[in-house]
Write a structure and sequence with these properties.
The protein is an alpha+beta fold. It is 47% helix and 10% strand. The longest helix is centred in the middle third of the chain and has 33 residues.
Length: 738
Amino acid sequence: MGFKSGSSPRINKTLISLKLVVLLVISGLTALHILHATKPLLLGLNFSEYRTISIVAPFVSILGPLIAGPWADRLAAKNPNGFGRTLRFLTATFLVLAAVINAVLFAVPDVVRETAQKPQVSFGCDGNGAYIFQKLCANDTCKAWDRKEGSVKLTRCTYSCLNPNFHENMYQFWLGDTATSAPSTDQSSDFGDYEEDAPSATTEKLQATSRLDVAELPADSAGVEVDSSEVDRSKRQAKGQAKKVYVEPPHLCVTERNEQGADLVKNCHVYTQDTPNIVMHAVMGAALNEPVTNETAGWCQYPVEGIKCNIPAQQVKYMRDLKKDSSCRPIIECLIVEPYSGKDSVLADSECVTTIGNVEDTLVGYTIIRLLGDIFAMASLTLLNTAIVIAVRETSEGRGEVCRQYVWGAIGYVILFSPLDLLFMQSHPNHDAALAALIIFIACFVLGAVVLVLASQMPLSPPEWWWHTKTGMLVVPMSAIRRYSPEIVLLTLVSILFGTFWSSIHSFLYWTFTDENAICYAGIILILALFFNVDKFIEYCGHSNIFIAGFAIFVIRFTALSDKGTNWLTIIMETIEPAVIGVIWITIILYMRHAMPRKLTATGQAIAVLAFFGLGKGIGALIGLAREEKHPSLEYWKCCYQWLAVIACIISLVYFTIYNLILSPRCTAKPQHSEELISGSASQNFGNTGTSNGNGAGSNGAGVPAGAGASLNGNTNGSYSPLRVYHNERGKKGQFRY
């Protein structure tokens, strides 16, 4: 029993091969996403190197869509009859190249970095400058950085002789004929002249407390202005009246150079018994080649710019007399608090790490493979979108149902992403997850290429000069791209923004989900959303409304991430996020298909891919990977998510305003009667299917411009310009909402 006239089979057999290709390619891209988050760390690269690669790769990958899209359109223009075969073979070629390039990862050597050893450190300062001493690593080499900035937290500062091997307190408040124990600083009236800014960092600008002329006094070793206590002490010593003198506590002075190149004291930090610690900005240079002494043997000495210290002469004499050694080098010695784990510490990432293998070879090899592989993977995705748009273009049955093809990609997402991600989260990083992801990626892309080569019945001929719909609506000519270029530009910006928001959360897979079960639920919801013909839902709501709703969902998503107390809301948003991203992505594809002329179908899809997965993903990685590896948790990152929520809210309002007040009135066509649109030979094709209500475009979309119908009227030779379809299948007025 055959089908009735005018009906179509429930299953289009020519699209079965396309569904299989979508399943394999999207599954491969899912595995590639997990591979990118796992493989660099398994190769031995550190987080800084991983971050650099993850930021650079998306920006470089836009070369794939930029080349593949225009190339496919040019091939379609040159040979329309053989374009289907050309598109299939071109896509298969890119798939094979991406698989082969990533297969080279098996040959990239690993780098073994043993657990970092934290060598001892010490801080010393004298009139010549400040230094950080670090114990030599096992390889007996010092760091050769040119300029390393950060902070240093100092405590237990005291006067001592240079010897970083042990901390010796040789400071005496009162010095004279006999050494006495140090009293409390409150007993000194001279010390009361210093003002403390805060208990954690006592800071004082050295100012004379007396108007005595100090020009005749000898300059100290740091060039620091002499305090009035020094003046009084010098006078008493000159008169021979005092047996004991007060020695000021250690001063660590911040200096800056004047126009003549001389160091001038900007301010000083004073360390007393009541000072817990002093935090100072430090600019550390490469290790000095100082003569090695018994005290400094086995230590690296790094100079610190902009810090000098004054050591009183009485303290110098006292230490040398106590040591009975004229070779004592007087310094102010401090211990460093949290030298390797402190926030913004200048010594961060300077631990002793024993490396087995060549880091440079591994880094360069992986980076080249990653960049080339992403280029061909994005080119494959561009041509896959083009194939879907062409193969399921509108027929006499109405919409092309793009979502019915992408639902098979969602099935691959659930089958692969959920178990692989759960395996990945069991231990970090996971060798089994990386190996499985690489093998699955290669197998899926190669099988997808084989299917494309063999699927000769896949309907991939270029779209006709008209795209027929049930309403018989004509479409805008290619020259109308000038009219609709603002919408194309805005759609590109919207794609970049959605890619940025998505990537700012998912740029590092280990931080993606707070609940493992949300992964499985998310995939199921995605399948259900795409299976129930999202195309109709998008056309009913309108593309712009879908985008505004997407921005609103990201506002909620970022708000939930910015507060630990809303973890339940975070789990809910994690569950529905894949479905939201899927709907937004299909909306971008459909909108770009309608906004671009048919001769630029592949170019339009290339713009969508490079905007979302290229520029958007790269910008999102810049934001999402800006956090420190040592402090990746949300409490250190909630401020950024708060700003992202505010930005998403502002963007949604701006987009709503721009689209509805500027773009929509500009791109909306004036309603025309079907008699004005149908003339000449066009009536032979559309006379029986034209709209009976006489409206050619919706009030909210890009319809037929006034010039389109005018070009047909009075055309006696039957020639007419190619037009494009904007339709709503069962709309009373043939509307297509945007």
